[in-house]
Amino acid sequence: MPKITYIEHTGKEHTVEVATGLTVMEGAIKNLVPGIDADCGGACACATCHVYVDAAFAAKTGEKSDMEQTMLDFANEVNETSRLSCQIKVTPELDGLVVRLPASQH
Known about the structure:
The protein has helices at 24-30, 66-72, and strands at 3-7, 13-17, 50-53, 82-84, 97-100. The protein is of the alpha+beta class. It has one domain (3-100): Beta-grasp domain (Ubiquitin-like (UB roll)). Strands 2-1-5-3-4 form a 5-stranded mixed sheet. A hairpin with a 5-residue loop joins strand 1 and strand 2 (13-17).
């Protein structure tokens, strides 16, 4: 299973194995990683699973859909590496993925 490292805004790291086919958000929820609220359960309807994808993996996570981009407009502190973790499917190519979590999810 691919390993993903979630880094809290405080710098605390959580490296967990996530089954392929799940989303990065589901991996965080199943492994009790704090900082991903996922209020909508992964329906791309709330932006409370906002993460910053490490630049080395940006191309491997796919393109943002129009809906994802619209939802990111509601997130805090968005930058060019911002993604909704519910929209990133875990694949073998994402082994070693690092995502950073914002200070808060809104």
